[in-house]
Structures are given as C-alpha cells and as structure tokens.
Amino acid sequence: MRLPKIVIFDFNGTLLDDLHIAYGSVQEIFRVYDIPCPAVKQYREEISADFMEFYYQHGFPRTITAEELNEIRRKFYRANGDNARIRVDVYSTINQLLVLGFYTAIVSAEVTTTLHKYLLREGLNRKFDFVRPEAWGSKEAKSKALLQVADVFNCSPEDMIYVDDSVDGLMAAKNTSVVPMAFTNPTGYNSSHRLMEVADISVNEISDLKGLLSL
Q1: Alpha helix positions (H), the chain
Q2: Which residues face 6 on adjacent strands?
Q3: What one-character DSSP code corresponds to residue 4?
Q4: Given 3.40.50.1000, 3.90.650.10, 2.60.40.10, 3.30.2350.10, which CATH number is that of 6-17+84-213?
Q5: Which of 107, 111, 147, 209 lies at a C-alpha separation of 20 to 30 Å from 139?
Q6: DSSP code of 159?
Q7: Which residues, in sequence order, are CB contacts of 118 under 8 Å at separation 6+?
Q8: CA nearest 135: which of 117, 148, 152, 116?
Q9: What residues have CB less than 8 Å from 1, skipping those under 6 apart?
C-alpha cells in the first residue's frame, strides 16, 4: 500500500458506534407500518444508500416516500441518538496519527449540528484537520466531498485513504482514486464480506491504523 498523507474517516458506523441506533430506527419504521422486520444480520447484508429499495423489497408499498420514513427515523434519533458513542480508541488513534505526521479528516453524510455535537462531547472538535458533513443528496455527493479534501490539502486522491463501514462509501473512494479501507468491525453498517468485495485492505478496529500506518 502506498503510504498516504491524509487519513479520511466516515463518521456513522465508523468513528461513531451507532449501529444499534440505526437498526433501532429501522425496527421502529417496520413497527409503525406493521411489517415484520429483518434481523440485524440481514440488514447489514442488504442496506445501501438506496435505502428505499431495502424497504420496498421487504413489503413496503412503493407509494411510501423517503420523507415519510425519514420522519420516523429522525424522531427515533431525537429520542435515542445520545446513546451512541464515539468508539473508545478514536481519541488515542487520532493523536498517534498526528504524531506520525498524517493529516486527518472526516467526510460524512451526518448533518453539521449533530456531527459537531458528538465531536464536542468527546473532545474531538479540534482534533481533525478538516471536517466535511452533509455529503449526501446523490450517489456522487461523497465522491465530490472526497475530492474536496484533496483540493483543500492540495494533494492527489491517491495520497488519501478513506476508512468506511459501507460499500457505498468505499465505492465513492474507489471511483475517485482514493484508497478505500474497509472498517470491518461487527458493529459497522455493512458486513465484512460485502466490504471486502470492494476494498483490498481493512481494519477491524480504529486503533489498527496505528500499526498499519507506522510501517
């Protein structure tokens, strides 16, 4: 692996251990519509950025809109989102990467206020060199956000790695020549075998980066 200059992280499911909240919101959506909810293992095998297809394939009428489901999801997150925590090894890992001379960034679909709330709560608000929230809205949005990081640091995409727990995020990296690194933790959003169909390298814990990048 070419040693990168910048390590970029996804947030939800990667730095933030919130699969239990994300899946809880899915259970709530299925409960509201009185449709049997698939187990979390199946959810991790099937969910993607095109999340409406997941629901349609499990019996939701195609007349239901994304906004209707998102309203249920937002209500669930307002009630339960504070139960999500930054992974315990993030703080020490970011410090070590800084010592090793790497720049660090976040590219996330999370909304600005929520992302910064979590970072502030965990004392991470000043640790990252660049934070790009709200990288959503189209399949190309995350790719554009990753390229924005390259512009900010005036470097080639090949000099960056993107650590993500989703196939969509890893594909966005691959499509922009950013090195995709799968985060294969069992509480990531997608299963490890799905991720490794896209990425050639992986870490199971955020702290694994310290050894991998200190070579």
Answers
A1: 19-32, 40-46, 51-57, 66-80, 90-99, 112-121, 141-153, 167-175, 192-195, 208-213
A2: 103, 160
A3: P
A4: 3.40.50.1000
A5: 209
A6: G
A7: 11, 16, 84, 86, 124
A8: 148
A9: 179, 201
Q: Domain coordinates of the chain in residue numbers? A: 6-17+84-213, 19-83
Half-sphere exposure at residue 19, Cβ-oriented, CA atoms within 13 angstroms:
19
The span from the CA of 193 to the CA of 159, in Å, is 25
Predicted pLDDT of residue 211: 84
Q: What is the mean pLDDT of each run of 10 residues along the chain (215 residues)?
A: 84 97 98 98 95 97 96 96 95 94 95 94 94 83 93 95 96 95 97 96 95 75
Secondary-structure percent of the chain, ordered helix, strand, coil, rounded to 5 = 45, 15, 40
Burial string for 154-179 (b: 16+ CB within 10 Å, else e) reads eeebebbbbbbbbbbbbbbbbebebb
Position 46, amino acid: E
CB 200 within 8 A of CB 84: no
How big is the CA angle at 205 (ends 203 and 207), to the nearest 5 degrees?
100
Q: Which helix or strand (DSSP H or E) is residue 164 part of? A: strand 160-164
